[in-house]
Amino acid sequence: MNRGILVTGGGHGIGKQICLDFLEAGDQVCFMDFDEALSREFEAQYAKLFYFYGDVANPKSLKAFVDFAMKKLGRIDVLVNNACQGNKGILSDLSYEMFDYVLSVGLKAPYELSRLCRDQLIKNQGHIINIASSRAFQSEPDTESYASAKGGIVALTHALAISLGPAVRVNCIAPGWIEVNGREDHSQTDKAAIPAGKVGNPSDISQMVFFLIGQSFITGETITIDGGMNKRMIYHGDWNWEYRG
Ligand code: NAD
User: Fold this and answer.
1) Is the pTM of this model over 0.95?
2) Which of 7, 43, 119, 159 has the least CB density, counted as fewest CB within 10 Å?
3) Domain extent for 60
């Protein structure tokens, strides 16, 4: 379709699958990633794929990325804010600086990129897709930084949808466990614990990106894709669930 697509963290995993599916659809894709070796290798395989090196936590790199993308693509129709990394929290004594870094990657970068792409997205009646996590809604111990970034991006999504609508639709996807390294040896118990009976794969997320950008009456929403994990009620002693604290 020759749309201009921007993806962060496109060198591996879910972001890479999203890039591949847009290329397959005939679009031109620009991605930012700080894993240079993986990303250069990926870029070399596709004429309509353009790689920009940088850490999304650095606002100067974000500006340079959008300038680069405009030079290469000439337009921006879809922004996918995908890059993020997990980190720990209060039980690990995670420092203020490290907590702030996780927010810079997972929350401040999506805001800044939305701001930098705003005029293009309005002009082209485009879409922003944010990638959160089921950890925006549920927690394990010692996950404050990641949970906060992911909770923040869910709220950023509805705030942006209200500010930028009706021209731009803004939605979010909250994945559960997605296998990004091609492993197929998950234990039967791991699989059975998930109501869908399996671990997800990057296409499960990418397909939802395409569904959402095909919609005109869905905006501000977060769609959870976790194989039903967040719907399972767990009480020690019921239905074989055992708490080993
Ligand atoms: P991944 O580690 O497979 O790939 C992430 C890519 O982003 C890598 O290429 C990495 O180099 C890049 N990246 C990370 N931080 C960056 C930064 N600061 N600047 C530039 N590039 C950066 O990760 P994934 O599993 O595909 O995760 C993609 C998104 O999905 C993330 O937002 C993640 O939080 C979310 N998510 C993943 C899962 C899962 O189970 N895989 C579950 C819930 C949410």
Assistant:
1) yes
2) 119
3) 2-229
| Interval between CA 7 and ligand 1 midpoint (Å) | 11
User: Cα separation of 245 and 230, whole Å?
Assistant: 20
Q: Residue with structure tokens 């000439």?
A: 74
C-alpha 10 to ligand 1 mean position (Å) = 8
Which residue out of 101, 146, 235, 243 is catalytically annotated? 146
Compute the distance from residue 35 Cα to the ligand 1 centre, in Å.
11
Query: Interface pTM (ipTM) of the complex?
Result: 0.99
- 220, part of any domain: yes
| 241 lies in some domain | no
Please give the chain's pLDDT, 245 residues, in tens.
899 999 999 999 999 999 999 999 999 999 999 999 999 999 999 999 999 999 999 999 999 999 999 999 999 999 999 999 988 999 999 999 999 999 999 999 999 999 999 999 999 999 999 999 999 999 999 999 999 999 999 999 999 999 999 999 999 999 999 999 999 999 999 999 999 999 999 999 999 999 999 999 999 999 999 999 999 999 999 999 999 98
| Counted domains in the chain | 1
From the CB of 12, is ligand 1 less than 6 Å away? Answer: yes
Is 125 part of a structural domain of the chain?
yes
